[in-house]
From TrEMBL:
Pfam families: FAS1_DH_region. The lineage of its organism: Bacteria, Bacillati, Actinomycetota, Actinomycetes, Mycobacteriales. InterPro entries: FAS1-like_DH_region, HotDog_dom_sf. This is FAS1-like dehydratase domain-containing protein. It comes from Mycobacterium intermedium. Residues 28-167 form the FAS1-like dehydratase domain.
Length: 182
């Protein structure tokens, strides 16, 4: 555990606000929005909205064609999971080479738990859309005392865009980074 003053810790946290989570480049979906993945999602979640599944219905709907469930935005741009070593990474399905929050773990805030996720939808993704995602740190709370331990609520916001740069939606994702046993 690295010794760091509360003031230094706060300064390092504040410096992250507005900064990209990873390379700073938008993550590009490996595939365009497509009916097969929409169908898998709809059946897996028992969300059989005909705007997702029935081309004739969708054509006569306000959407004009088949659309993707809007909360699928995240799934279109997710990196393929790397299962080898997932236990050693604490269940994280991707390798993080340069973790901007490593200094929190080094200061003893080793626990991480997702607390909530919120979506703002501008428009439903359409079949053929090529989606990109840009993620930045939005807010980091002051240290809070929680049942899990003392820690910081870290919120990042991902903005999803189509191939023309039009915003499809935003997702806020919040985690608690905490000291176990505090």
């Amino acid at each position: 555990m690295t010794e760091i003053t509360k003031e230094e810790l706060r300064q390092r946290l504040d410096a992250l606000i507005g900064q990209p989570i990873s390379s700073g480049q938008p993550a590009k979906a490996p595939d365009p929005v497509n009916p097969a993945m929409i169908r898998h999602w709809a059946y897996a979640l028992d969300d059989l909205n005909p705007a997702y599944l029935d081309p004739e219905f969708a054509a006569s709907s306000r959407y004009g064609a088949v659309v993707s469930p809007p909360v699928m935005l995240q799934s279109w741009t997710m990196a393929p999971p790397k299962l080898a070593g997932i236990h050693e990474r604490g269940g994280v399905p991707v390798e993080i080479k340069n973790n901007p929050l490593q200094f929190l773990a080094d200061a003893g805030y080793t626990g991480t738990i997702a607390t909530n996720s919120e979506f703002e939808i501008e428009r439903y993704p359409r079949v053929g859309d090529e989606i990109t995602a840009e993620t930045v740190y939005e807010t980091i709370s002051d240290e809070k005392k929680t049942a899990m331990g003392n820690g910081f609520f870290v919120t990042w916001i991902t903005t999803y865009r189509d191939q023309n740069g039009e915003v499809l939606g935003r997702q806020r994702f919040r985690t608690l980074r905490f000291k176990t046993g505090s």
